[in-house]
Design a protein that fits this description.
35% of the residues are buried. The mean pLDDT is 91. The chain has helices at residues 2-18, 54-61, 117-124, 134-146, 153-159, 170-186, and strands at residues 32-39, 42-49, 80-83, 86-89, 102-104. By secondary structure, it is α+β, with helices and mostly antiparallel strands. A five-stranded mixed beta sheet has the order 2-1-5-3-4, with helices on both faces. The chain is 37% helix and 14% strand.
């Protein structure tokens, strides 16, 4: 056994000794990197760890705390944002992967003093209780409508199933999606 371990070390040691000392040093993955994220229509330059998620970039580096950190495993949907028009769980999406794409958060929906139609529908239908999941629910609901999955209550339930509401406001959420869908589709 000792002979096998010793012979395995020889090639490793020989390889290390033969490396060119002028070769560039390996990049330290924990070193900060520059990234520009387009969030709610504005470019934001950040210097972050390459492993930073969109959620942490939003909350920790930009002060946009509307998107919530629920499970941090992509299972609850509380952190849902839109990247392009696609809904994404931001806790599992690296900020570097979102560079060059438009990120829309709950903070970017209202214009002036007017709520987005989905936000207004959530208020009108009392589609939230504690409110923790509401930003992710609203972002996912907007995508659900734009994806063409708001034609029936069954479709809405199916395509919103990735967003958990521990208060069980699901019937009111479905009603809100149904209310907002026509206005979103025409606009």
């Amino acid at each position: 056994m000792a002979g096998a371990a010793g012979s395995a070390l020889v090639p490793i040691t020989a390889r290390a000794a033969s490396q060119d000392p002028r070769a560039p040093a390996a990049h330290d993955p924990s070193a900060p990197v520059e990234v520009t994220l387009n969030v709610n229509g504005k470019d934001r330059r950040l210097r972050i760890d390459a492993r930073t998620t969109v959620l942490d970039a939003l909350r920790e580096h930009m002060g946009l705390t509307g998107s919530k950190k629920g499970c941090d495993h992509g299972q609850c949907g509380a952190c849902t944002v839109l990247i392009g028009d696609r809904r994404v769980v931001s806790c599992l999406t690296l900020a570097l992967a979102a560079e060059g794409q438009e990120i829309t958060t709950i903070e970017g929906l209202a214009t002036d003093d007017r709520l987005h139609p989905m936000q207004q529908a959530f208020v009108d239908n009392d589609a939230f209780q504690c409110g923790y999941c509401t930003p992710g629910q609203i972002m996912s609901a907007i995508a659900c409508v734009k994806e063409g999955h708001a034609g029936s209550e069954a479709d809405i339930r199916e395509y919103m199933s990735g967003n958990i509401c521990r208060c069980a406001a699901y019937p009111n959420i479905v009603a809100a999606v149904k209310q907002a869908a026509p206005e979103i589709l025409k606009g």
